[in-house]
Amino acid sequence: MDNIYDFPHYYEIAFSYRDIPQEVDVMEQAIAHYSHIPVKTVMELACGNSPHMLELVSRGYEYHGLDLSPTMIKFAQEKAQTHNFEAHFHLADLVNFQLEEPLDFLYIMLGSLYVGNTEGLLNHFRSVEKALKPGGLYFLDWCVDFSPLDNVQDSWVMRRDKITVTTQYSTRLFHAADQLYQENITLTVKDQGRQHRLAHSGLRRAIFPQEFILASTKLHNFEFIGWWDNWDWQAPLQEGQGRAEITRPITILRRL
Fold first, then answer.
1. pLDDT tens per residue, range 2-16
2. Is 41 left (phi over 0), alpha (psi -120 to 50) or beta?
3. Which of 22, 72, 209, 226 is most buried by its number of CB atoms within 10 A?
4. For residues 166 and 175, is the Cβ–Cβ distance under 8 A?
5. Chain centroid, CA 2 distance in Å
6. Distance (Å, rounded) from C-alpha 63 to C-alpha 53?
7. Which residues, 6 or more positions from 35, have their beta carbon under 8 angstroms from its beta carbon?
8. Handedness of CA 94, 95, 96, 98 (dihedral sign)
9. Distance separating alpha carbons of residues 167 and 185, to the nearest angstrom
10. What is the pTM of this model?
11. CA distances (Å), origin 4, targets 113, 184, 236
12. How far is residue 28's CA from residue 23's CA, in Å, rounded to a whole number?
């Protein structure tokens, strides 16, 4: 079965349920309230098809994207070229990467902080620390796990240009002591009467709230600003505020 990351167009359709302008609004609100520096340069880690790129560039930001997949990088580059603007791309692993110059704002979406172990998590924060200017923000979407990832199951259908993509997502516990879960994503694509099945299966380490704070603020030079449920500033996940279900939490760190 083909890999989902080798078909960026179908991948883009599968995850097109997001309201991109609204999400960029939230990122700009975070910058306005919490950044200690003006923001002109932004970078998405694990950028994939760079879904926020067009919106960010239209608002005057210089966009950088980092990803491990040459196919995804090429797709995003062609998108930028089609719209006649310059963007900057880096083919690298988010666990260990280095930029020529630090940037003003870094972000990562849809739980894409894939690390295999604690060393990988610490190396990631070390890389981000070097890549972000002091006073700048690191904005994370769905990267902190407020509940175990065991037996998560979800599915949805998206359509565009007579193409239908059905996504099935699931996780199961792989190794409890190492906080490792097996993640499975399957895309069933119907395009011009033909059906394709694409898949991804891999191990991901869960990142729980207090170890996230420990790794970022005690072992690296970040200040914890806060976390909020479902991109909603009115839904802070503060101590003593229990919630039955937490969906797409955002987390903000500031580089010291």
1. 999 999 999 999 999
2. beta
3. 72
4. no
5. 23
6. 6
7. 104, 105, 135, 136, 137, 254
8. positive
9. 7
10. 0.97
11. 18, 11, 34
12. 9
CB atoms closer than 10 angstroms to residue 171: 19
Which pLDDT tens digit goes with each residue over 42-92? 999 999 999 999 999 999 999 999 999 999 999 999 999 999 999 999 999
Instruction: Answer whether 187's CB lies under 8 Å from 166's CB.
Output: yes
What are 18's two structure tokens? 């997001």
Which residue bears the tokens 């991901």? 204
**Are 15 and 110 spatial neighbours (Cβ–Cβ below 8 Å)?**
yes
All domains of the chain, ordered by start, with CATH?
2-145+208-255 (3.40.50.150), 153-205 (2.20.25.110)
What is the sign, positive or negative, of the torsion defined by CA atoms of 178, 139, 136, 97? positive
> Do the Cβ atoms of 19 and 109 come closer than 8 Å?
no
Neighbours of 249 (CB within 10 A): 23
User: Tokens 């998206």 appear where?
Assistant: 158
> Of 56, 68, 71, whose CA–CA distance to 92 is shortest?
68
Q: Residue 256 is which amino acid?
A: L
